[in-house]
Amino acid sequence: MSAGDTLFGRLRNRSPGPFEAPARPAASVGLQLYLDNAGLVQQLSGPLRHLLAQRLASREPAHLLTYLSTHSSLAVEGHPADWQGQLLDLDFATQAGPPLHLRGWVQPQDEGWLLQLLDIGDLLGERQQARSREQAQRLAGQIRDHLRLCSLARLPQVLSEQLQRLSQHLHIPCLAVALLDEQDQGWQIHQQYAALDAPQLWSPAQRLGTALDHLPSAAPQTLAAREPSLTNTIFGLHSGFAVPYCDARGVTAWLLCGAYEPGQQAPDLNDHDWLSLTAAVAAPLLERLREHRHQQQLERLETLQALLGTGWWEVFDGAQVQLAEALADSLGLPATRLAVQDWLAHVHPADRDELRSHLQALQEQGTPLELCVRLQRTGATTPLWYRLQGQALGSGAERRLVGFMLDISDIKNQEQQAAAAHARLDNLIARSPAVIYVQRYVEGALQPTFFSASLQALLGWSLADCADGTLIEHVHAEDRAHYFERTRQLLREGSVSARYRVLDRQGQAHWLLDEARLLRDDLGLPVEAVGLWLDVTDATLAAEQVKASEERYRILVEDSPAMICRYRPDLTLTFGNRPLAMYLECTPAQLPGINLGSWMSAEQREAFLQRLAQLTPQAPVSSAEINLSLPGREHAWWIWSDRGVFDERGQLLEVQAVARDNTEVRRSQQQLTQSAKMATLGEMATGLAHEINQPLNVMRMAIVNVLKRLGNGDVQVDYLTDKLNRIDAQVQRAARVVDHMRVFGRRSEIEQQPFNPLDAIEGTLSLLSEGLRGKGVELRVRESNLQVQVRGYVDQLEQVLINLMVNARDALLGKREANRDFQPWIAVSAESDEHVVRLWVEDNGGGIDPRLLERIFEPFFTTKPVGVGTGLGLSVSYGIIENMGGRLSVRNGDEGARFCIELPVALTD
Ligand code: ADP
Predict the structure, then answer these.
(1) Is the pTM of this model over 0.85?
(2) Which of 47, 191, 299, 584 fits a 20 to 30 Å CA distance from 147?
(3) Main-chain dihedrals φ then ψ at residue 184, nearest 5 degrees
């Protein structure tokens, strides 16, 4: 062995130049060939001879060339003598397997040459291996550099190129890098390369699941084709070679070589080479990817901070604070690092001490900080709200106090608005007579889970008083069945509106209007019911009261002594009460359908309809005294009050009327008028006697004179004619007086008639003028030619005028008794406009005591001595004028009373 070692040492240190053979060849090692001068092999010895393909044939020696691989023949050109002093590297063909690499030299021996050869196969293999490994390392270094130095954007491209390079260098058909997906902990093909004719083992980003976890991760793994294990999901039906990459986190990458057997394709590389090759790819790749992720995270964080108005802060040494740049910016701070005191100075005074104490607690006890504070900004009126959170990280020298600040002004504002809205709503609910409730659905029943605070105010109950099925106890006993039906209907139809009574804490019943709605989940199953209780006690009671009062009014109408009816504008009755029916001698049921007009004269009906036509929604009421001629009965006088019922357009729909029989009153009034008439008549008796006496005297004088002349025979025709004419005039005058007297002898017509009021003045004057003049009262009658007419009774108006003039006369005569020089007068005048006729009777009798002015129209009021005055004159006169639709009034003029009769002008057709 020592000889081999020496030899090896020499061979290894081969230097160019002539070779000096060792003195003594060793026959026990290598191969010895004995050659003749032509190079024919004479004899073989040495242990390697058994490996040779060509063996020495006993008879025919073969040339050395026949033993060699073809490419070695160049080294042995010519004859052995030529090869002296040279080292010969010769490859010998073997029986099986690779050729034998032998090195040797020739030296003369006996007649021929001895070719002494030693096996240098190992030496060559080692060198080859070293070269391969060196190349692999260089490649690894280059790959690492490429992956490290390229830009992030080009990383995928560069990785692909490097994989291709690796694949080509090591003859790997399919090559891939699988990385651990950090999210789902499974393996994924990150990048792959397949040679042109190689099978497509993987698709981009293919997931490999946890298959790789089952491989031992300490060394590269060779996987035979069709290996019946989980792992063949990685290489399919092909053989494969998987190299792990471990870093501080464990196995984080695999280099997968598909359809590959490293022992054959890259026999020179050992596990270590493979691991470092894989590391050259995986380490920078992972580093770059982590760097990328980190950068992305940073970017995201920064964007997020900017978007949210948030940022980190860190306190150093308890006195200094460092803030994220964006945060310092948005707070308007001059620098990112400042004294804690200065930082606190930006906090609103209201929150400053609290934050300081929290910071202290964080620093001293490590109590996590969480606080909302306001920050004052220079120049801004409203402070910004920030949420501050902080915590202590690590311990000892490594201890850090870090946290973040988040702008929550928006949330705070919304919170404040929501709180205000909430408060308003709460207030509204609490003040309203409504209770909002929620009932949970539990196996077909509804159980209260919420009531608004107004429940307490309304009923005095709380949720606890109504929970666990006790609500029903507060429902009025008579309404419980109704309540259960309400629940059933709610569950059946999804909503319900019910009204029932609930007792409050004092036991008082409240009518509640319950409006509820059922809420269902996604599957349509009932979840809860939301509803509203509205206290409608007042409304319900009011409705009941209306009903009761309607009933009372119905009874009232039915039992009223007054006659009550309703009729349409065409005067058809739609309803009449019992008194009306009784008056008409029928039953109430027979009344509807009868036309009121059928009981009136044409004129009455006309006037009645005209009055109805004047009803308006603004003035819907009117009354009148109407005269009815009921079949088979004498005239009836009814005081009739109408009230019109109108639709929204102001159209008269119906009239409600109340009537009172006034026939008796009328009759007594007439009697009163009659007696007043008689009184007037009596008063005038003296005057009348005088009126008649006057012409009688004139006539007697005329007749006496004529008879005297006839006795003398001295009668001329002219004289006679004159006397007779005078007598005739006096007769006519007397006749006229008598004629007017008849007015008082008859009763007024039933129907009012139109007439000219001047007729009444003329009639009055014809009765009274002579008598007044005889008493020395001057009559001042202003001429008038009124052409208008009034409606009524001419005799009654005359009666009124007579009353007024007689009263005036009495006042005048009374005054003259006291004063003989007094010049009494009575003035009568008339005038008219379009609508009204006014007649005045005025005197200079000194007027009426103002304290009595209001009373003089009262019946039986008189200032005259008993037996003289009746006190009826003015009151009856008042009634007469009113009956004609007019008005009688009085005031004191300059010298005496001034009476005024106003009458409506009658419309002539
Ligand atoms: P009588 O004439 O019977 O007293 P009247 O009703 O006619 O009843 O009159 C009531 C009262 O009114 C009279 O008593 C008188 O005092 C007063 N009176 C009426 N007319 C006049 C008048 N022209 N001047 C003064 N007083 C008058």
Answers:
(1) no
(2) 299
(3) -105, 10
* Residue 60 burial (C-beta neighbours within 10 Å; 0-12, 13-18, 19+): exposed
Q: Which residues pair with 799 in a beta bridge?
A: none
Cβ neighbours around 746 below 10 Å, total: 9
Residue 610 sits at φ, ψ, to 5 deg, of -65, -40
Beta strand pairing call for 778-781 and 100-109: unpaired
Q: What is the pLDDT of residues 568-590, one digit of tens each?
A: 999 999 998 888 888 888 888 89
Yes or no: say if 511 and 535 are a contact pair by the CB < 8 Å rule. Answer: yes
For residues 226 and 261, the answer to whether their CB atoms sit within 8 Å is: no
Low-confidence ranges of the chain (pLDDT < 50): 1-16
- Sign for the CA dihedral angle at 257, 262, 265, 268 comes to positive
Please name the residue that has the structure tokens 């007469």. Answer: 880
**Pairing mode, if any, of strands 825-832 and 778-781?**
parallel
Predicted pLDDT of residue 669: 73
What residues does 109 pair with on adjacent strands?
112
Residue to mutate, 678, 807, 855, 888, ligand 1, most ligand atoms under 8 Å from C-beta: 807
d(CA 445, CA 246): 64
Mind listing the pLDDT tens digit for each residue in 797-844? Answer: 988 998 899 899 999 998 998 888 899 999 999 999 989 999 999 999
Q: What is the separation of C-alpha 900 from the centre of its chain, rounded to a whole number of angstroms?
A: 71
The predicted-structure confidence for 766-778, as pLDDT tens digits, reads as follows 878 888 888 899 9
Cβ–ligand 1 contact at 844 (below 6 Å): no
Q: How far apart are CA 506 and CA 114, in angstroms?
A: 138
The verdict on the CB of residue 871 being under 6 Å from ligand 1 is yes
